[in-house]
Structure prediction request, 152 residues.
Amino acid sequence: MENGSMRSKTIRATAEQTAQTAALVAALLAIAGFLIPPLGTLVNLITAWRFGATGYVYYEIGPNRTTTADSRWYLPRAGSGTYADLAVGDKLQEEDDQFLREHPAKDASPFIFVLRKADCVIVLHKDHEVTVQKAVSGGWLKVATSACGLFR
Prediction:
């Protein structure tokens, strides 16, 4: 009986040490991500890809970085805001309800669900740019749902 009790204590101690080590690693990554922005972006990207819903959204930008009737996404960072200016890891915030689609096709693709006003997504991949008529630029993006940041 003593061997079983010793074994149980050893297993419990190992499990506690593993949990403490994992917590320490997570805390160090969080601190490093805060202090080193590219690492923070990478952590956000991996977390969203792993735990968020993934799909496609259409992104289109009008003159002066305005949203269009076809796309109500905006890029909350400096830059031109064009499709070419987007990068993997960029966050987009929704100005009005939009569909997260299964494939990059406006009406031919079933939607996964509706993203609500002020929801955010993170860019996983720029699928393809399209020729636009009245806007400055646009195209399809593979994205994952993500937290918007400190205040959302």
User: Anything to note?
Assistant: The helical segments are 2-35, 37-51. Residues 53-146 form one domain. The first helix runs from residue 2 to 35. The longest strand covers residues 120-130.
